[in-house]
Amino acid sequence: MYLSRLILNPGNKAVRRDLADCQELHRTVLGGYPDLNEEDADAREKFGVLHRLDIHPRSGAIVLLVQSLVNPDWSSLPAGYLLIDTDLENPACKQISEQYGGIKSGDVFTFRLRANPTKKVGTSRVEEIKLGKPKSNGKRVPLKNEAEQISWLKRKGDHGGFELIAAKAIHELADVLVKEESPQKGAYLKGNQCSNGTVNNRLSFVSVLYEGKLIVTDACKFQDTLKAGIGSGKAYGFGLLSIASARGD
Fold this sequence. Notes:
Layout: E1 2-8, H1 13-20, H2 22-30, H3 43-47, E2 50-55, E3 62-68, E4 92-95, H4 97-101, E5 108-115, E6 118-121, H5 126-130, E7 139-142, H6 146-160, E8 162-164, E9 177-180, E10 184-188, E11 202-205, E12 208-216, H7 219-228, E13 241-245
Antiparallel strand pairs: 1-3, 1-4, 2-3, 5-12, 5-13, 6-7, 8-12, 9-12, 10-11
């Protein structure tokens, strides 16, 4: 696995376009991988690509992190896309397979995750299914309550080989910080074409930034979680779980 760090040039037209539209950023990110058809919906999964935009806490630089199963090639980025006036290697890419392969159950990490927590509503109840009514899968709606957002991540941990380090009662999960962010502008979808030839569906995501501390309960599952990401919207900058060793643990 590989992890790239790209420091973006906010004065570049293509960067401003990508920051304004997550579908455009998705296309730019996939352009770093070989033999891709931009219309191929499986391309992201094929190369295991996850990405996230961060703002550097000290410099204020716009940092694009990209994780993938194969070594990317960023030479095709638009001219001026990356910031030149920086002392850091840009772009930078490192192999992380060995680091992730050495993770053990009981290891403690600090983490950061931008996710799109959702739940399904309108699904069929057991009683309805027993009565022979058609099964309904319902629709996904965003979770906007902080307690629900934390519970969502706990459930992901139950299946993903980790537990959130928590206190009890009102201070439950006190080491976890949830930052509600503005809905991210999405992309037009195919279908529902208007009479004038335009499309009127638009993706939007509730973006939640999770930061905190976790403990690995199942190393194999956790490594799979790191590789696959968490939640939906992975093509649009959600799901990349970043970890660092927790000092003092």
